[in-house]
UniProtKB/TrEMBL annotation:
Protein's name in the database: Heat shock protein 70
Superkingdom of this protein's organism: Eukaryota
Keyword S-adenosyl-L-methionine appears in the UniProt entry: no
Organism of this sequence: Arctia plantaginis
GO molecular function, one term: ATP-dependent protein folding chaperone
Record field: compositional bias (Gly residues): 101-112
Family under the similarity heading: Belongs to the heat shock protein 70 family.
SUPFAM superfamilies hit by this protein: Heat shock protein 70kD (HSP70), C-terminal subdomain
Residue stretches of biased makeup (Basic and acidic residues): 1-16
Length: 126
């Protein structure tokens, strides 16, 4: 039984990484779509349409490539970022014009960014 676990350990790790890459791409798509919906006057309609079309194409690709490997998901994410990152930068620049980090006035932070986790919250109970 232990030998079976060792034999499948590498395969399980590859599967975990593949699913993680897919989830990362999918999360990026939805966060960009949400940011575009909330962009208001910060972006032109053409820029919004460009971003939405790229996101819709990525979602179609995800639906048609459910068995893609990790590298394919990562490649698709990079392609989408090439299109959407300039749009997010434009939107960020049209915000509060902050030069420090943070979310630059964007609700929900910058798409694709990571939330800072300061560890568990501990509450004392009497």
């Amino acid at each position: 039984m232990l030998s079976e676990a060792e034999r499948y350990k590498e395969e399980d790790e590859k599967q975990r990484q593949r699913v993680s890459a897919r989830n990362q791409l999918e999360a990026y798509v939805f966060s960009v779509k949400q940011a575009l919906d909330e962009a208001g006057e910060k972006l032109s309609q053409q820029d919004k349409d460009t971003g939405r079309n790229a996101c819709d194409e990525a979602l179609r690709w995800l639906d048609n490539n459910t068995l893609a490997d990790q590298e394919e998901y990562e490649h698709k994410l990079k392609e989408l970022q090439k299109v959407c990152s300039p749009l997010m930068s434009k939107m960020h620049g049209a915000g509060n014009n902050t030069t420090s980090g943070g979310n630059g006035g964007m609700p929900g932070g910058y798409p694709g960014g990571y939330q800072r986790n300061n560890g568990p919250t501990i509450e004392e109970v009497d």
